[in-house]
Write a structure and sequence with these properties.
By secondary structure, the chain is α/β, with parallel strands linked by helices. The protein has a single domain, classed as Rossmann fold (3-Layer(aba) Sandwich), CATH 3.40.50. Helix 2 packs across helix 5. The chain is globular. The site of cytidine-5'-diphosphate (CDP) has 16 residues, from helix 2, helix 5 and helix 9.
């Protein structure tokens, strides 16, 4: 591993990590817009890989199936409307536990950090292992957490809208718990906060408050 995680001098990299549905994506989008940085949702790479395995009837836990999909990842997979489905997310956490898959997707992430698109001065990556593995010397690292039930409610709202049913919420809660456990317990790049990450608990905070705190932390590091 390691096609060099140290970056060239000028690049700014903001790492945002945390468990499923913790609000990483929303925060990352707001920060990228405000700071005019390129944004990479790294979860989409794992979701895209998983979806491409599922499409051909493969097994997301099978290394050959998952690795060949990761090596072929392209825009068609990354823009597929089924990318955000919970079944895709669950399969994503299976391909994500396979070290060779992570290795294959590492290059994509490093290329993005080194050459942010659209001439941007730097990038924001959100995921699980950005501050620990993908970019240990990131300019600023944020680790977002929230209680599991709060995260499940937010995801149920996102998927089903305000009128979601109890059984829909229950299924999402179950899926999140399983996914968190797989992400935390895997041997390769498990979900955990980097020692120098700023820990933000969003359980009782709205997005504006979280954004202000994160921005204050980042501006101090620039
Ligand atoms: O949006 P949500 O937080 O539900 O998930 P995601 O960020 O799209 O990630 C989907 C799955 O991809 C996660 O459950 C992880 O298993 C995996 N993943 C990872 O292992 N490493 C990353 N940097 C990003 C995602």
């Amino acid at each position: 591993m390691n096609d060099n995680t140290s970056l060239d001098d000028a690049s700014i990299v903001i790492a945002i990590d945390g468990p499923a549905a913790s609000g990483k994506g929303t925060l990352a989008r707001k920060l990228a817009k405000y700071l005019d940085l390129a944004l990479l949702d790294t979860g989409a790479l794992y979701r895209g890989t998983a979806l491409s395995v599922l499409k051909v009837g493969g097994d997301p836990s099978d290394e050959m199936d998952a690795l060949s999909a990761a090596l072929r990842i392209g825009n068609a997979d990354l823009n597929d409307p089924n990318l955000r489905n919970e079944s895709t997310a669950s399969a994503a956490s299976k391909v994500a536990a396979i070290p060779s898959v992570r290795e294959a997707l590492l290059k994509y992430q490093h290329d993005f950090m080194k050459n942010p698109p659209d001439g941007k001065e730097g990038s924001i990556l959100d995921g699980r292992d950005i501050g620990t593995v993908i970019c240990p010397n990131a300019t600023a690292k944020i680790f977002i957490i929230a209680e599991t039930e709060t995260r499940a409610k937010r995801r149920a709202l996102e998927v089903f809208g305000t009128g979601y049913k109890t059984e829909e919420y229950d299924r999402i809660l179950q899926d999140l718990k399983q996914r968190d456990e797989r992400d935390q317990k895997r041997a390769s790049a498990p979900l955990k906060a980097a020692e120098d990450a700023y820990l933000l608990d969003t359980t009782n905070s709205d997005i504006e408050a979280v954004f202000e705190k994160a921005l204050g932390f980042i501006l101090n590091k620039l």
